[in-house]
Design goal:
Helices cover about 65% and strands about 5% of the residues. With about 220 residues, the chain is mostly helical.
Length: about 220
C-alpha cells in the first residue's frame, strides 16, 4: 500500500494544536528541549499518521484470523466446561448411589441384628420358663416327699405308742386267781352244773357273781 503525505491545509490546521502541545511541554519541562520546530513536529505528526494508517490496515487484515481463533477458543472452553459439568454430575450420581447402598446395607444389618436379638430374647424367655417349671416341679416333689415322710413318722409314732401302752385291766369279777367274765362258774367236784369249773380255794374280794363263797368268809371252793 502507498502512503500519501498529509495535505498542506491539514498541516496548516494542525499547527495551532502543535504549538499548544509545545507550550504545555515548556510549562512542564521548563525548556524547549521536548518541543522541536514546527516542521519537525509536522513531520513527526505525518509519520505517526502514516504508521497509524498502516497499523489499521494490518489490524483489519488480521481481524478475521483473530476472530476465528477466539471462536475456537470459546468453543473449546465451552466443551471443557461441559465435560467438567458432566464429570461432576457423574461423580455426584456415583456418590449418591454409594451413600444409598451404604444406607441400605446398614439398614439390612440393623434389621438382621434386631431379628437376632428378638430370637435370642425368645430363647432366653423359653429357657427362663423351662427353669421356672423345673423349679416348681422340684418344689412339688420335695413337698410331697416331706408330706409322705411326716405321715410315715406319725404312723410309726402311733405304732410305738400303741405297743408301749399297758393292756386294759381285765374284769376278774373280784376273784383271785382271776375268773374272766363269762358263763357260769362252779367249784370243781361240787354239785354245780358249770359250764365252767374252777378248783379252789379262790379268794373272793368282790360281789361274788358266781356264788363261790357260800359262807361269806372270803374264800370260795374250800
Amino acid at each position: 500500500m502507498k502512503l500519501l503525505a498529509p495535505h498542506s491545509s491539514t498541516r496548516q490546521a494542525s499547527q495551532p494544536r502543535v504549538l499548544a502541545s509545545c507550550a504545555a511541554i515548556v510549562l512542564l519541562t521548563g525548556g524547549l528541549a521536548g518541543c522541536g520546530s514546527a516542521s519537525e513536529t509536522r513531520s513527526t505528526s505525518g509519520t505517526m499518521s502514516m504508521q497509524s494508517t498502516a497499523t489499521g490496515s494490518h489490524s483489519s487484515s488480521a481481524n478475521p484470523s483473530a476472530s476465528q481463533a477466539a471462536a475456537a477458543a470459546s468453543g473449546l472452553a465451552s466443551q471443557s466446561a461441559a465435560a467438567q459439568l458432566a464429570a461432576a454430575a457423574a461423580k455426584s450420581i456415583a456418590a449418591a448411589k454409594s451413600v444409598a447402598a451404604a444406607k441400605s446395607a446398614a439398614a439390612s444389618q440393623s434389621a438382621a441384628a434386631a431379628k437376632a436379638a428378638a430370637v435370642a430374647a425368645s430363647k432366653s424367655a423359653a429357657a427362663s420358663q423351662a427353669a421356672a417349671a423345673s423349679r416348681s416341679a422340684a418344689a412339688q416333689q420335695a413337698a410331697a416327699s416331706q408330706s409322705a415322710a411326716a405321715s410315715a413318722s406319725r404312723a410309726a409314732a402311733q405304732r410305738a405308742a400303741a405297743s408301749q401302752a399297758p393292756a386294759p385291766a381285765q374284769d376278774c369279777g373280784g376273784y383271785s386267781p382271776c375268773i374272766p367274765a363269762g358263763s357260769d362258774v362252779d367249784c370243781e367236784g361240787g354239785a354245780g352244773n358249770g359250764p365252767r369249773y374252777i378248783a379252789g380255794p379262790v379268794q373272793v374280794t368282790g360281789s361274788d357273781p358266781y356264788g363261790l363263797d357260800r359262807d361269806g368268809d372270803g374264800v370260795g371252793c374250800e
